[in-house]
């Protein structure tokens, strides 16, 4: 498997940095993970968006799904798509309310919303029912601790596993998500300063502790907020898991 970073800025886009979005590739199949603000532009520097085989959305905060509207415009209005998008609808694995939530974000008024459900170009599947086959991958979604319905995603292929925390505070589900993974892509929005609200995000220290407990092979830190001290977050994570590293937009990582 190969992981590509479309964006890694936490909560909002940062200067020259898109919000959350990632690609996972194997056997020529392209799986998108989240599609936050700015990621659709970055996607086009790597692949034709029509090449997406499926998309998984960990949750529906804008910094993880805002560019879904741009993808919808492309799929509905491109004058010369490479295939019939109504016959080859894109599978979207997302929280149960995604069809309604994303239609409301896309439609500019009540009149259009009344006749817009996006099912003409997408095939929606609710996360959380159990492991599912997505192209060559096994995708497992595990509910995590965030102010809205949110999932960590565990993606396996060829004996290798990547776990993506999505957005979450510390919770027991993360140990199940990350157990024995080859690569842990973990959010680390802020430092471990006192007074952080519970059930929202992880600190660098908490992400490092998770990787150490899980026996992860590699820890990749993402979702660092633009107002956070990235160097301090990395230092916290390294204190618990010395092999931790910060991801960079446009970078690729092999899941080995």
TrEMBL record:
Residues 47-223 form the Metallo-beta-lactamase domain. InterPro entries: Metallo-B-lactamas, RibonucZ/Hydroxyglut_hydro. Pfam families: Lactamase_B_2. This is MBL fold metallo-hydrolase. It comes from Amycolatopsis dongchuanensis.
């Amino acid at each position: 498997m190969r992981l590509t970073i479309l964006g890694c800025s936490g909560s909002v886009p940062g200067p020259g940095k898109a919000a959350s979005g990632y690609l996972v590739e194997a056997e020529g199949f392209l799986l998108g993970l989240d599609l936050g603000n700015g990621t659709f532009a970055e996607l086009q520097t790597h692949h034709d968006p029509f090449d997406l085989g499926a998309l998984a959305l960990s949750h529906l905060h804008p910094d993880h799904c805002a560019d879904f509207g741009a993808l919808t415009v492309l799929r509905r209005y491109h004058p010369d798509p490479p295939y019939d998008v109504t016959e080859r609808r894109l599978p979207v694995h997302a929280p149960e309310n995604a069809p309604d939530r994303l239609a409301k974000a896309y439609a500019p008024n009540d009149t259009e919303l009344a006749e817009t459900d996006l099912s003409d170009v997408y095939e929606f599947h609710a996360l959380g029912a159990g492991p599912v086959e997505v192209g060559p991958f096994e995708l497992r979604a595990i509910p995590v601790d965030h102010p809205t319905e949110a999932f960590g995603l565990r993606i396996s292929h060829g004996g290798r596993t990547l776990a993506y925390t999505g957005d979450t505070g510390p919770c027991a589900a993360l140990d199940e998500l990350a157990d024995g993974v080859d690569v842990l892509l973990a959010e680390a929005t802020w430092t471990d300063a006192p007074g952080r609200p519970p059930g929202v995000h992880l600190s660098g220290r908490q992400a490092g502790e998770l990787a150490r407990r899980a026996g992860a092979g590699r820890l990749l830190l993402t979702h660092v907020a633009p107002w956070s001290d990235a160097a301090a977050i990395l230092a916290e994570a390294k204190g618990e898991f010395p092999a931790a590293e910060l991801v960079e937009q446009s970078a690729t990582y092999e899941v080995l």
